[in-house]
Write a structure and sequence with these properties.
85% helix; 5 helices; 106 residues; disordered N terminus; rod-shaped
Length: 106
């Protein structure tokens, strides 16, 4: 079952509790709480809002937060790669320069 279909089935099955969840998500969640949500909870809430046809500004907040987290993960990987390239460059330069300094290369 597709994620989009799963949301509709969940909404049909749970009725009033889904309405209560949507109200809590759209009206009672602070921005700070949104930032502190685990990735799986953030995705679950986003799917719930889409499944009930909620197209309020709140959906944009959730989508933006998911995107911000993905960008943060990419930045961490890029920082690690930058450090690794720096270290490799340092080692290669050292391997090239040290023999010349010690006179072993001539």
């Amino acid at each position: 079952m597709a994620a989009r279909d799963w949301g509709w089935v969940m909404a049909e099955r749970e009725g009033a509790s889904v309405v209560a969840d949507v109200r809590r998500i759209t009206q009672e969640t602070t921005y700070r709480e949104l930032l502190n949500l685990r990735d799986d909870e953030l995705a679950r809430r986003f799917d719930l809002l889409l499944s009930v046809g909620s197209h309020e500004l709140t959906i944009d907040h959730y989508r933006d937060e998911i995107q911000r987290r993905e960008i943060a993960k990419q930045n961490q990987r890029l920082e690690w790669l930058t450090g690794a390239i720096f270290l490799l460059t340092f080692v290669l330069v050292a391997l090239e320069v040290l023999p010349r300094i010690s006179g072993a290369g001539y």
